[in-house]
Inverse folding.
């Protein structure tokens, strides 16, 4: 099995961003008891685990939400997981509202720069930043090492920007007529999943060629238009999970057939997923109710839940 550096099997600890509280919180995965909390420089949204597993890099987005950035930030924080402290910050160079963060296998930190209409390639050691123009506001990204490409969803536009990872330039677009929302790449790098913004639709692309393989209707919930949706593939490549924020809903698909096998009614505003080590359980942040769930991907059954600080958005198991 190929290990995606951005989607590794989980561990006994959880770290969660609580963006409206300007906090990062820590939990014991066995008990879901909170084990620590740190104040962040400003509202912090997404995280990615470092190569050595000892830290996470977290995007300090700043005030407001997409399209209404009242006080955008410019930093990416390095959080030491053992010390439970911010070890240092990287300056993105301008108030660009950093959001999605991913690592490539060469140790380059990739980050969306929403207000710059760009994706940044950052050397974590030196802090040097290279900006790649995506044409529109890039919000999330995913990396395929098999295709040597970075994909950035331009949330209010009808495409995903395709970036050559080595050349660091946009080489194409994946068309998303209903506007591009959440996206992910399978651990083997062969497939790109993209959620539509306007409709309950999941697009499936070949990562290397950019060919659209199929479109899938997400069943369950109300199917309301114009809502935030996220998609993740489990580290063992068995399940595809899609959250729909306004519908308070999660859909689970069997990755081999892309048949929807479960539908979960969730607390308000489901957002980011994380994955437990055994390959069957996953975690979900429910932003508006400040609740994190643990659920069974094979059945859709909710197993446990715990309270978080306000605005939980993203969870990493380590």
């Amino acid at each position: 099995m190929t290990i995606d550096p951005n989607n590794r099997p989980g561990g006994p600890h959880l770290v969660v961003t609580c963006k409206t509280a300007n906090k990062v919180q820590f939990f014991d995965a066995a008990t879901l008891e909170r084990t620590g909390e740190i104040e962040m420089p400003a509202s912090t949204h997404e995280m990615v685990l470092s190569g050595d597993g000892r830290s996470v890099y977290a995007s300090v987005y700043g005030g407001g939400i997409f399209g209404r950035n009242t006080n955008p930030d410019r930093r990416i924080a390095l959080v030491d997981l053992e010390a439970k402290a911010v070890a240092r910050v990287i300056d993105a160079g301008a108030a660009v509202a950093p959001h999605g963060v991913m690592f490539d296998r060469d140790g380059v930190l990739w980050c969306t720069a929403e207000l710059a209409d760009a994706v940044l390639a950052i050397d974590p050691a030196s802090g040097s930043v290279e900006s790649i123009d995506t044409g529109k506001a890039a919000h999330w990204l995913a990396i395929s090492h098999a295709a040597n490409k970075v994909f950035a969803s331009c949330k209010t536009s009808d495409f995903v920007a395709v970036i050559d990872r080595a050349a660091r330039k946009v080489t194409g677009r994946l068309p998303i007529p209903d506007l591009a929302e959440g996206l992910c790449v399978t651990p083997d790098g062969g497939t790109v999943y993209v959620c539509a913004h306007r409709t309950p639709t999941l697009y499936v692309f070949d990562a290397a060629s950019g060919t659209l393989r199929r479109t899938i209707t997400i069943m369950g919930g109300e199917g309301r238009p114009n809502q935030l949706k996220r998609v993740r593939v489990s580290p063992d490549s068995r399940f595809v999970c899609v959250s729909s924020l306004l519908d308070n809903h999660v859909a689970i698909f069997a990755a081999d057939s892309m048949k929807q096998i479960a539908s979960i009614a969730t607390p308000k505003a489901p957002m980011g997923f994380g994955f437990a080590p055994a390959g069957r359980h996953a975690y979900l942040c429910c932003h508006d109710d400040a609740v994190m769930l643990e659920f069974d991907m094979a059945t859709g059954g909710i197993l446990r839940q715990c309270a978080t600080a306000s605005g939980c958005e993203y969870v990493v198991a380590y």
Q: What stands out?
A: The two ends are 19 Å apart (CA to CA). The chain has no helices and 28 strands.
